Amino acid sequence: AAWNPRRASASVTLVAGDPVRVSLPLPVRYRVESVPLGAALTVDGQPAGTTPATLDLPRGARAALVARLDGHADAA
User: Fold this and answer.
1) Does the pLDDT of residue 2 top 70, yes or no?
2) Do the Cβ atoms of 75 and 34 come closer than 8 Å?
3) C-alpha dihedral sign at 41, 47, 52, 57
């Protein structure tokens, strides 16, 4: 289920012959895993859950992702 896109809908009233252009600001979806599992994730310093995790970021966004687990070096 983690890879299913979120559904969205919008109502549009058209007249015959009207052109239609739809722009969808779809995020980029990242799957983050670690070995061992359970690393705490932060995105730009904000908590973002634990691994395994699915993160949605806006297209073109730049973010600092850090995975941290006691007894292991941080992964950035």
Assistant:
1) no
2) yes
3) negative
